[in-house]
Amino acid sequence: ESIKTVLRSPENRILIKRMLIKCADISNPCRPIEQCIEWAGRISEEYFAQTDEERRQGLPVVMPVFDRNTCSIPKSQLSFIDYFIIDMFDAWDAFADLPNLMEHLNNNIKYWKGLDARNLRVLRPPPE
Asked: Could you read off the pLDDT of 30-74 as tens digits, one per residue?
C-alpha cells in the first residue's frame, strides 16, 4: 500500500525511473559472480587503456589507480561497491525487495574480499 502511495505522485515516478536507470548503469556487482567477474575485467581493461593512452600522450592521468602494473582489481571493486553500490542497493532493496540481487551482491563482496585477503590483484585466483 505504501508503494502505491509513493507511485501516485508523478514526481516520485520520475525519481524512481531515474533511480532504476542509475542502478542499471552501475549494477555489475549485483550480477551473478561469473558475469560480475567478466564485466569487472572488461571495465578494468577499458580504464587501463585510458590510463595508458593518457600517459602515452603526456596528458594528466584521470584515474591513476588504474595503472595496469599496480592496480588491484579486487581492491578497486571493493572500493566501488563501498562507495557507490551498498547504500544505493540497500535503499532499492528496502523499497522493492530484491533478495536475489542482494544475494549476488553479498557473494561478489565475499569473492573480491577473498582475493584481496590473499593479496591477489587479478580477476581470478590462480589454478591450484
From this structure: 999 999 999 999 999 999 999 999 999 999 999 999 999 999 999
**Ramachandran angles phi, psi of 29, nearest 5°:** -65, -5
Count of alpha carbons within 13 angstroms of residue 104, beta-carbon side:
17
Tell me if residue 9 falls in helix, strand or coil. Answer: coil
Which CA distances in Å does 76 have to 102, 104, 126? 20, 18, 19
Residue 89 covered by a domain:
yes
19 located within any domain: yes
Asked whether residue 123 is assigned to any structural domain, the reply reads: no
- Within its chain, how far is the Cα of 38 from the centroid? 12
**Residue located via cell numbers 582475493:** 115
Structural domain boundaries, residue 24: 3-118
Residue 127 forms part of a structural domain: no
CATH of residue 42: 1.10.1300.10
Residue 50 CA to residue 43 CA, distance in Å, equals 11
The Cα–Cα gap between 68 and 101 comes to 30
Residue 63 three-state SS: coil
